[in-house]
Amino acid sequence: MASEFIRRRMTPLAAAAASLAFGAFVVAGPVPSARAHDGHGPESVADLAENLADAVVNISTAQTVQGRRSVPMPQVPDGSPFQEFFEEFFNRQQQDNDQPRRVQSLGSGFVIDGEEGIIITNNHVIEGADEVTANFNDGTKLVAEVLGTDEKTDLAVLKVTPESPLKAVSLGDSDAIRVGDWVMAIGNPFGLGGTVTVGIVSARNRDINSGPYDNFIQTDASINRGNSGGPLFDMNGNVVGINTAIISPSGGSIGIGFAIPAKTAMRVIDQLREFGETRRGWLGVRIQEVTDEIAESLGMDEAMGALVAGVTDDGPAAKAEIEAGDVILRFDGKEVEAMRELPRMVAETAIGKDVEVVVLRKGEEVTISVTLERLEENEPVNASATVEEEESEPAETSTVLGMTLAVLDDDLRAQFSIDADVTGVVITEVEAGSSAEEKRVQAGDVIKEVAQEPVETPADVEAQIKKLDEEGRRSALLLLANPTGDVRFVPVRIEEQ
């Protein structure tokens, strides 16, 4: 996958020499815009770059790491002429490796508040650092305090104490930029100091599987190791993105770089400055993508929204009676075009706000009012509650859609190590080449629902499949639980019954 080549840590080790510093220590003032252009690209961005570079800084970090254990000494016969040599060599090497070492790295950042000395960079630039220093264009070095970090968006807020106000830049409207608009990146690639590159916005709202709130701006402006945390400017001198990742087999720029949109960063930055942590809204649902097959099985005209695969006990959704199998179509008045949009919508909504959520439930749209709560970043997983053992039912098996089904009794529960609180119809075998196998349905999975109707016996499953077939449905939507109880929706193609 392309994501295997994503390089998030673009801060190279500075093992020998310090990199060139950049960013001036001057009085803050308005940044003039670039000269007007005719849509074919600016003739020159020299004036723009000259005025913006003073607000961009080099971030250098240092941390102490423990020495690594050396390779164990080879076994040699007692009395061998090499025994004394190896013992002396490996003992000396072990002593050297046990000593703590200082490791340095380099990245980029930019000033957004010259009076307060507030600097923005990436979390991965300063993560684990003992010392963080902001290096300015005039050679000034200021020790930076970390006000707060957010791993989910890879943002960090630093504070320095300047003797006079710093040159600062403003966060712009990242929603206003369009694919094809010119942008400019300034940063510290490979420790070279202030470097300016220009390109266009190649794409928007990119998901690179780096976190739950991915909606990156993609650009072909050259971004390399060391550019992390640096700004991506529009042609008016406003920061529309924070450079954070690249896709590259070699580690260098191949014209595919990613920046966190300013709109995404704004709320995170404000919270880190005020609280030192993020405070996000929480809905309390597990969701999955609505594929074309799932949409067809639910009678939807098009694939959209977020399918609720599970609801957290005592969470906001559970209290509002949102159910597994609901498809969230609208949240707080906004259309949920795709599953991955919902987490970002929820996170950006104020805690405690009453939000209208429109869901599709068994073919009907239902409006539900939900009061959002705060997302606990390290919320523990609730232990599964045990249930009383029920009397074993008579054995019953059948085969449908390439799956051999059976009543979930104690023997099968033990055979497949199925948790005590998992209920439904157990799948004991999956036919090779069947649609179920293509969807990675496995023996030991338990069918809890078919077409959003609970099932308890193989006969229940057969009856629901037959009903769907008679209605002309091409696939059956199964709610499956794995042996540990994690659930997911799987559309299985209906063969001729």
UniProtKB/TrEMBL annotation:
Pfam family, one: PDZ
CDD domains listed in its UniProt record: cpPDZ1_DegP-like
Catalytic activity, reaction form: Acts on substrates that are at least partially unfolded. The cleavage site P1 residue is normally between a pair of hydrophobic residues, such as Val-|-Val
Main EC class the enzyme belongs to: hydrolase
Subcellular location: Periplasm
Keyword Membrane in record: no
GO molecular function: peptidase activity
GO biological process: proteolysis
PANTHER family per the UniProt record, alphabetical: PERIPLASMIC SERINE ENDOPROTEASE DEGP-LIKE-RELATED, SERINE PROTEASE FAMILY S1C HTRA-RELATED
Sequence similarity: Belongs to the peptidase S1C family.
Protein name per the record: Probable periplasmic serine endoprotease DegP-like
